[in-house]
Amino acid sequence: MGGRMKERELDLVVFGATGFTGTYILKQVLATAKPGLRVGAAGRNERKINAVLEKLGGNSSSVVTVVVCDVNDPQSLRAMASRTRLVINAVGPYRHYGEQVVKACVEESTHHLDICGEPEFIEKTELSFGGKNGLAAK
After folding, report:
1. How far is CA 75 from the centre of its chain?
2. What InterPro entries does the entry give (predicted)?
3. SS3 string of 90-129?
4. How far apart are CA 35 and CA 22, in angstroms?
5. More exposed terminus of the chain, fewer Cβ within 10 Å: N or C?
6. Which among 8, 6, 15 has a CA at the least distance from the CA of 112?
7. How far apart are the first and last CA of the chain?
């Protein structure tokens, strides 16, 4: 835990890519990404992730790496976090599912970004993880 970030397979992973918000985030990332950005789409069901990539069209299925990960499986969360520089978390509600994602990212020294608007979760995360690996909720 801690220290400098090692070279990672991916630059960013959109976790929850099959949900409404995750699909939107993935679409925007792909629409604005510079060539060479290494993107992953993560969720519980590989078939559903591939269906989202097909729906997004273009060459998304050839440039996006599918990452199978379950928010209720800490080992799969750490495996996902260890592969990327940034996890964009769209799996909610955060008060139920957010802490384990943040924890995996902290343990793997991976950047974490979410769209949380839940004050209790934000405060709890800052209290639980603030100061670890430079985590700061802003």
Report:
1. 15
2. NAD(P)-bd_dom_sf (IPR036291), Saccharopine_DH-like_oxidrdct (IPR051276), Sacchrp_dh_NADP-bd (IPR005097)
3. CCCCHHHHHHHHHHHHHHCCCEEEECCCCHHHHHHHHHHH
4. 21
5. C
6. 15
7. 22
User: Which pTM was predicted?
Assistant: 0.87
**Domain count along the chain:** 1
Assigned domain for 78 exists: yes
Are 63 and 39 in contact by the 8 Å Cβ rule? The answer is yes
pLDDT digits (tens, 9 = 90+) for 74-126: 999 999 999 999 999 999 888 899 999 999 999 999 999 998 888 888 888 88
Domain that holds residue 92: 13-29+38-116
In whole angstroms, give the CA distance from residue 105 to residue 84: 10
User: Domain with 79 in it: what CATH number?
Assistant: 3.40.50.720
Q: What is the mean pLDDT of residues 41-45?
A: 98
Instruction: Single out the residue of 59, 57, 52, 55 nearest to residue 67, CA to CA.
Output: 52
- Helix, strand, or coil (residue 85): coil
CA angle 128-11-87, nearest 5°?
A: 30
In a domain, 122, yes or no: no
**Which residue type is seen at 4?**
R
Q: Does any domain span residue 59? A: yes
